[in-house]
Input
Amino acid sequence: MTTTLDQLRPGQSGQIARVEGCDGISCRLREMGFVPGEVVRFLTAAPLGDPLNCIIQGSRVALRGREARRISLVSPVPVDSSVAIASGMPQGLGEKRSAVDPIPV
Amino acid sequence: MNPQSRRVVLVGNPNTGKSTLFGVLSGLNVRTANYPGVTIEKKVGRLADPELTIELVDLPGTYSLSPRSPDELVAVEVLTGELPGEPDADLILCVVNATLLRRNLFLVSQLMELGKPVVIALNMIDAANSRGLKIDAQRLSENLGVPVFAVSASKRQGIDELRAGVVAALHEPPPVAIGKPLPAKFYEFSDDFSGRLASLAAATSGGVATKMPSRYVIERALLDRGGEAQRQIDRQLGADAGELLESTRKQIETEIGPLSELECDARYAWAKQKTDGVLGTASDSGHRATEWLDAILIHRVWGMAIFIGLMFLIFQFIYAWSGIPMDAITGTQDYLTSLVEGAMQPGTLRSLVTDGMIAGVGSVLIFLPQIAMLFLFLAILEDCGYMARAAFLVDRIMSLFGLSGKSFLPLMSSFACAVPGVMATRVIENRRDRFATILVAPFMSCSARLPVYLLLIAAFVPSVSYLGGFVSLSGLVLMAMYFVGVLVAIPTAWLLKKTLLRGEAAPFVLELPEYKVPAIGIVFSRVWEACKAFVIRAGTMIFAASIVIWASAYWPGDHTRRLELQRLIESESAEASEDQVAMWETELRAESAKLLESSVLGRIGHAIEPAVRPLGWDWKIGVGAVASFPAREVIIATLGTIYSLGGDVDEESEGLMSALQDAKWPDGRPVYNLAVALSIMVFFALCAQCVSTLLVIRRETNSWRWPIFSFVYMTGLAYLGALVTYQVTIRLIS
Output
């Protein structure tokens, strides 16, 4: 299991491994800054638990849990095994990113 | 086009201060129109220059140029000069938010592929600096190969330099730096595809020259699966081109990588490279004040409480604060009437002016202060960044009945007016969500209903206040009327999404901008535009409707005796005895009422009376409701004219409000009471009496089916709602 953005706790950060899908919404997510390598920080959830407010590339973006689930993170929280990291890697890009350490909370 | 005229197109991400910069650069010299054939709004201003006529065109804020909706395609076509009837752009002025430089460069990289000179306005430089973010504009300009100007539109810093830079670039266009951030291999594929498309087109058309899509459209078609560019190629060149497109994509995917990741990865890598040595220390946490405010404003408990409290305060203020300017307008109206009456002898023309024009238009115009107030609050909330938070707070609730937080802004704007509200639904990419939002948007209590509520509340809701005068019953009733629309809209949207518009809810991704002090210029111009539109409506549509209503209430009928009585009362009352004058006045009232009943309007009213009696209405209200088909406010104008012509508004009365309070059934019971007032208000809360809204629904859905459907189901609901309200209230209060 890899960690996805919706599994972070308030205040936690993670580095993006990939954004699933090639439809309109995944493109919009990428355009708004959710691209592999960037660090995303989860701030708070809305009063009813959804959507989530997070910071990506310096801007605050709100997105629903369903969309956040598409964003998988390199560093599982809490720090897990290297297996999880490797399986979360997009093909052919693993060697570039496996060196990244989990970002401390 | 004049050889001395140039066109500058202003582009940028949302929340970059683009509107503020547009306002600062063009001053008050702005006109708005629509692009030919499409409903995207076009804002055009002028840049002052002694030699050139420079037109500044403002495009809607966008994160990228990958056209995914017909709207975004229009934006691209404006930029590339492909839109028929639109002159080619000479220069692209791109507004970039200095605090989010790297993400904003994504759009810049796309703009630099269009083959046009680009000038960059690095806006909000003050905010970046105050956050300890140092940006080397000179270095950025060198890296990108285009002029970069650091400005602060809100503080008017660097504007003169920017203006001079734009003018200089127009006089002597800088070399166009076409960025090619994608892998070189992609461009090979794209050129190859373009060549094969051309030969395909030549083969199928049999030698006739076919218009080929631009290089930009071809690249976009390759990159965006199912996007607008692909559709354009399909339209122009047929299914064979579509197959060729898909096979080229497959080749690209096997040789370079997944298309969906290719572009973003390349563009962000480009942005990273271009900002190398430009950006100083970066802080990812944004502004301190925003963090602090968000901790309260979107807090689990306080956030919701503040949201509800804020909405509550707005309605209280609208009600309480606008009394003074309203009194002034009533005073002016009375003064005008007395002026006309002093200058003219009683007659048909005088009746047209006082009973038709002044009573009709005046009774609508009186609500201008409230309209201004409502738009003022909406503009402030939107410009300071709270509106996006409100969407964030209510998204979960909206998703329960099948909509998303994206529907919040269109619905919230519909509280001002459903026409911009329906137009604002264009930000919703999902068609089903968009249509569901369009169909329930007219339920939001627009400013045209406000006059109806205010008049009836002032006349029939007891003036009681609680908590030491801070909370008034009138304000509470007003707020309840706004909730009626929402309460009906919720199950309607839910039903629509379960039946006619079945499908999954659209995703919700929304940027929450930094909080800022609202720009006075922007707020002022929104309020001004809204007031102007309201006054123009009152001066045209409602004016025309008032005259039609007046004419149908005046004719047919022999007005000789009535006019003679009016003359007698006005000229002889000084000499005649008091009893004589009172007799004349009683006879005048009876004569007026008789004439009104036998007029065209009176006959129509009596014909429909059986249908409106269960709602507690008399024929005058029924006629008002029917006559208000062009716009809801017309009911006020109609009642104003009816009571003025019917002789119910006499010298001492204070206009329409007291005329309503004094109106009686033939047996002497008052026509209006709380139950009747509430029933009228509920009817107008739910009905679709607004031609403009129905027409904009027709335009946006591109079919007559939806506006007809809207009208039928809303009128049905309005009748039912009014019936239930009257029957329940009358039992409660009697």
Chain B has a mean pLDDT of 80. The longest helix of chain B spans residues 705-733.
